DNA sequence: GCCAACTGCTTGCGCTATACGCAGATGAGG
DNA sequence: CCTCATCTGCGTATAGCGCAAGCAGTTGGC
């Protein structure tokens, strides 16, 4: 049995019951919530052990009673930001509707806390909510004829693409109407200045066309396009899987 | 004409010609190469203004003659790590082979410098090589019947997914054979410990099966699966695009 | 030949994560 | 009931960080 880091013990409620000493003044959930509030309001750079500690009424060092490092605090923050995977699928829904709903919901949570995609996780996600969302995604694919291996790979692809889409959208500052005076607003101007039509002919024509006016809809449009590609790909995989099952059942 | 940040001027060779004062002792390419070498050897955390400056024979503050902030240095590092997009497509190749080759090549570059996916870019990529790779990707899709808008969206999806795949693989420590004593090696053990089969039935069956033995092949297998989904999705999009063109040419 | 513009260097500030030692509170074992 | 290991949160201290500001020396256009 491997040793569990403290933050995981706390998040999963795996503390030993017979404990001496004073009761902890705060819970890890409170600390996570406070940190999330700071990151939402002032960005990820505003997160420091001091700022979070002060927000819950601690001194800096007291935070280390709950979390062994800032990386662990980050993992807690992400888990709190995602929230529980309370997504129930109607029985009549097909896999396509289900996984679409899943992707939309988890993307909405990420967009509500855009800094989540910027956090550098040092280890694979092991926190309750992140694991819960994986489980929920697998549930969405349950009525497909895919193997559980294929389902996991597929979910990994959809989730990975979605996470990157949020990150890129946020990074490019296209989460809402674009202020032309902002660095992002000047992006097009800079691109036009740098991208010589002779050296980059395809980009020169496609770029302005894509990012032209309706920056507001960028996220949704690219979301639909990307997810559409993946869904059609899954459909093809399912079709292939079905035909193979019919063709030679048991063979190979 | 918007103002160009210094590092972009230097990267694109857009310096004013008549310049007084001493010649710069180093080029931005040298600085970038030195920083890349450090990050390759010791990781992204080993990158500081001091460490990079020392590597090129500068004191810390002299770096600011070339780069206005550490974020700009990061952008330069990523550009240098990607290298030029010198990918030529054989005339006989179809779009499927072409985009596969593109995705493989850019992923190989990222895997060669895994920290590139961990860098937090504050602005959209505007450096020569990153832009060059976008152009190259568009070239791969050139002989499709898609609009340039669709091509850009498609490339964005493929690139985003690929970048995330590298990041996740690196993050999970699955870039090679897994040492069971490492934190990543203990991952499965921890998952088994935390993931109650009652609470997470699907994950409990799929997880061990997927990450079980051949961790070495994780990157390639998931790469093929994800890219396969996207390619089939693109194929469906192209088929739809063709049939529509035939059905009602000119209408809408 | 002048002097503005540029080079790289030095000092210093405020901030960071976190190692370490502390007094007081608590509850299990004798 | 008392003891004391164990826990709480606090205060201090350290090494490193990015970067602002001012420095002397070098260069090339006027």
Automatic annotation (TrEMBL), chains A, B:
Give me the positions annotated for DNA binding.
Answer: 48-67
State the Pfam families in the record: TetR_C_1 (PF02909), TetR_N (PF00440)
For the HTH tetR-type domain, which residue ranges apply?
25-85
Q: Which UniProt keywords apply?
A: DNA-binding, Transcription, Transcription regulation
At the top level, the lineage of the source is: Bacteria
Its recorded name reads TetR family transcriptional regulator
Originating organism: Terrabacter tumescens
């Amino acid at each position: 049995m491997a040793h569990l880091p403290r933050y995981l013990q706390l998040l999963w409620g795996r503390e030993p019951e017979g404990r001496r000493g004073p009761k902890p003044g705060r819970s890890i959930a409170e600390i996570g919530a406070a940190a999330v509030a700071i990151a939402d309001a002032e960005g990820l750079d505003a997160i420091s052990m001091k700022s979070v500690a002060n927000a819950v009424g601690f001194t800096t060092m007291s935070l280390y009673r709950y979390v062994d490092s800032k990386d662990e605090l980050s993992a807690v923050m992400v888990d709190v930001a995602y929230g529980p995977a309370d997504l129930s699928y109607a029985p009549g829904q097909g896999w396509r509707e289900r996984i679409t709903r899943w992707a939309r919901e988890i993307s909405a949570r990420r967009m509500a806390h855009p800094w989540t995609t910027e956090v550098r996780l040092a280890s694979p996600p092991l926190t309750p909510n992140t694991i819960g969302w994986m489980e929920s995604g697998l549930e969405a694919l349950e009525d497909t004829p895919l193997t559980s291996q294929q389902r996991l790979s597929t979910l990994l692809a959809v989730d990975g693409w979605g996470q990157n889409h949020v990150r890129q959208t946020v990074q490019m500052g296209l989460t809402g109407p674009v202020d032309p005076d902002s660095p992002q607003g000047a992006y097009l101007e800079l691109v036009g200045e740098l991208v010589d039509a002779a050296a980059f002919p395809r980009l020169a024509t496609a770029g302005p066309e894509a990012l032209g006016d309706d920056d507001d809809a960028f996220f949704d449009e690219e979301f639909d396009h990307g997810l559409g590609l993946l869904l059609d790909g899954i459909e093809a995989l399912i079709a292939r899987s079905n035909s193979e099952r019919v063709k030679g059942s048991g063979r190979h």
